[in-house]
Amino acid sequence: MDSDKGHSTEPFSPQHAPPRYQSVCVPVEGLHVGEEVRRKHIRRRRFWHFTACAALLLLFWRPIVYNVARFVSKLTTKHWDPDDLCQLPLRPQPMPRLSDCESVLDWTTDPGRDDGWFRAHTTLRLPVDAEELFFLSRGNFAHGVFVVDHSGDSSDDAVAIVGIEYARSAEGVLGNTTVCYLHPSEGQHGLGIFTPLWPSDGLKNRLEFSITLRLPTPASNEVLAINKLKTHLPLFVHHLPDLSRTAIFKYLSLTSTNSPLTVEAISADSATLTTVNGVIEGTFTTNHSLELITSNAPIKAEVHLINTDERNGTRLRMSTKNGGIKASVALNPDDLETPGGAFSVDARTYNAPIDLVFTDAPANSLLNASAVSSNSPVRVAAHPAFEGTFELHSSWFTPPSVVHNGPVEDPLGRGRKRNVLVNTVRRGAVRGQVGWEPQHRDAKNGHIGLETSNSPATLVL
Are 431 and 395 within one domain? Predict the structure, then answer.
């Protein structure tokens, strides 16, 4: 029928409801490749983050550790009291006491002045050939000056001249002060100053002492030999004139606090100078060992090291904190024509520069030297006679450097050539070797080490 033309004659088919909305996973070729690339980018980014963190840690590790240690030290260390002798940085040793006084010295009053100060003096004779001469101060009220001179007579005794100045307000302290001759054992002779251990309430109650040790004058062309001279004089300035040609000390020990130690020139088999918050300065000649130790102050020294026995080297040690070290060192300066000699030099400080120069050295000598600081430059200038290895360390952004200035003269006068090899281990570390070619059969292989942080380390060859 016509009316049915527009209708399908196919059997009736049931109509299904459309599917619910949901995500459909359609495989796309190459998708897994993009995922792998993304993972590689993530791994690469993590690697560079780790590398950057490691580099920053290496860069700032030493300053961080140093500052943390310094902070912890301040928290755990008792505040330093200049009047507390128990806090002095001294080697533990038995010290004479007031009960060891052999005799109390009598004072001679000086004519009065109109400045409100009173003065007196006394003297004490000491055998210059004693096993040990010593000067000691204990208590909280003594300070002053210790001086050595060579204007005495030709007797066998040294003379200690002691002066005292005090204000009227210190008369109570003076009444409880003892100055005496000490003879604790056979061969030991000394002067002791014992003031009260009360807490000091200012300079007005302090007693100002001056001690002059007057050595006898040696006969013509002779040198006065002093076995041992020791001081333990906190808050005393020390000054020694030029005694290098007229006296030699077998052992010299000068100890103070908050005061400088100055030496124009001395000769000693062994010497130790120790102070706190005071500069150490002078010219020293030693054939065994020299120690210069302070803190919060610089060291300025001209040192002559003498050595004739290579089995027992001559040693120099300089140590301070927050103070620079500037030193010139001559090795066997009076006998440069004789090859050989063994020497050890160590210079250490923190937060301050080191400038160490070796001015003289014989050929075929052995030198082991080190210079260590932090946050400041370190510079060492070696003598051309030095042969051996060297190693320099600093931060990567202030790399160490080795400077060798052209040809230098052969210390043996044989026209040999100097060979310098420098190897940069990494940025911030340099190693190398220097020597004369052809090498002499008696040549020694020494070592020079420099170390600092956040500043350059420079070795001049």
Answer: yes
336-350, 398-412, 445-459: the lowest-pLDDT one? 398-412
- Is the pLDDT at 253 greater than 50? The verdict is yes
**What confidence tens digit (pLDDT) does each residue in 207-241 have?**
999 999 999 988 777 899 999 999 999 999 999 99
Average pLDDT over residues 272-276: 98
129 and 213 in one domain? Answer: yes
- pLDDT the model gives residue 197: 84
157 and 234, same structural domain? yes
Residue 219: predicted pLDDT: 78
pTM: 0.80
Please count the other Cβ atoms lying within 10 Å of the Cβ belonging to residue 59: 16
In a domain, 161, yes or no: yes
Domain with 414 in it:
284-461
Same-domain status, 355 and 229: no
Instruction: Say whether both 246 and 370 belong to one domain.
Output: no
Of 278, 293, 318, the residue at which a domain comes to its end is 278
pLDDT at 85: 38
Mean pLDDT, to the nearest integer, of 302-326?
96
As for how many domains the chain has, the answer is: 2
Q: In the predicted model, is pLDDT for residue 193 greater than 60?
A: yes
